[in-house]
Amino acid sequence: MSRSPSSLQCPICLHTVLWSAAPVVVLDAQGEETPFQPLPGENQEVLFNRLATAYRVCTGGGTRHYLPHDYGDYDERVVVGVIGQGAAGKSHLLAAMVGQLMRRAAPLRDIGLLVEPLDLRIHQRYMSTVVEPFLGRRQRLRATPATAIEFADALKVTNLRTGRRFALTFFDVAGEVLERVDPSVAFIGAVNALVFVIDPETVPNLLRGRPETTGDAAFDVTLGRISAIRNRRRLPYLPIPSVSVVAKADLLRFRSSKVDHWLSRDAEAEEFDLSTVEEESRDVYSYLFARGAHRWLAPAERCAWSTLHFASAAGTSPEGAEFPAVAFRQRRVLKPLLSLLAMKGVLTPTPVGGWV
């Protein structure tokens, strides 16, 4: 286990947390806290088991919020922001990504990754209220509420080749919140990896014949704020990795042979093979550029490291509150996430050019 830092930046409020001095609490089913206390005579195994569901308290920004007890113990903390306007498909895409991460342990081990829950309480809640209704029952997810901003899920990822351990957390925030130029939306300053979700239903010349929008305001605000926070020297590129995902790509499949080519290549072996990422990125970029979707290409043009992808979280459009069973399928949803993890150093190149 890595040595805990004396202090770290809270990903929720951006304030500095004195890690060893932060109060440790446990939360009940209603979210009420009580101080964590060692039990008389308990051995280390019992203590560590109880600490696995404990939290450290941060009170920065005038709010009281919680971080997993061992959040500071990892070699690196990867904080992923999922960015896009309302109804872009962010929640469905993230649910598909996390669901596939948890279901496909064997091929992940083959590329050298072990994925486990970091925060059992948050993870179980996310699986039971988001992932299982979507993947298990094909339910259309409700719009993300514009309420308290917190982790959607929290996972721990171990690189089995190097032994390095990463805390992987996701923010899935309502589009209208992302579009606000509001200092209270502090998590943007904490993210160090970005997933930009492109909704083809809003991009002119993809599904509609005439221009109706000029870009995604959530993209613009996020990039502008990250530039102000992380790029004070005004370097040509923002020092942050990103993936741009054309979501709902099933809507485009029979309109473009290029989209069909990539959605057809959704076998497990190809999805876990990052040697095709550069080719796919070129195809997605040229596809969007040729159709005038220049504003949606801003993340790829402004971030120092970036890849582009076609993906479909459901494989079909919803009919009312559900997705039809006949075509329901996840296509290429892990490829963007694995590409992002590679850019963050969670996946590392082998001497022969593959990835572990």
How does this structure look, described?
With about 350 residues, the protein is an alpha/beta fold. It has helices spanning about 45-50, 90-105, 105-110, 120-135, 175-180, 215-230, 255-265, 270, 275-290, 300, 335-345; strands spanning about 5-10, 15-20, 25, 35, 55-60, 65-70, 75-85, 115, 155-160, 165-170, 195-200, 240-245, 305-310. The strands form 3 sheets. It has a 7-stranded mixed beta sheet. Strand 3 and strand 4 form a beta hairpin. Helix 2 packs across helix 4 (about 120-135). Residues about 350-355 have low confidence and may be disordered.
Short account of what is shown:
This protein is of the alpha/beta class and 356 residues long. The protein has eleven helices and 13 strands. The protein has a seven-stranded mixed sheet with strand order 8-9-10-7-11-12-13.
Keywords:
alpha/beta, 11 helices, 356 residues, disordered C terminus, single chain, globular
Our count of helices gives: 11
What overall form do the CA principal axes indicate?
Answer: globular
State the order of secondary-structure elements, H for helix, E for strand. EEEEHEEEHHEHEEHEHEHHHHEH
Annotation, overall tally of beta strands: 13
Query: Compute the gyration radius: what is it?
Result: 20 Å
Task: Determine the strand fraction and express it as a percent band.
Answer: 15-25%
Largest beta sheet: what is the strand line-up?
A: 8-9-10-7-11-12-13
Between the first and last Cα atoms, what is the distance in angstroms? 21 Å
Helicity level, as a percent range?
A: 25-40%
Tell me the major beta sheet. Answer: 7 strands, mixed
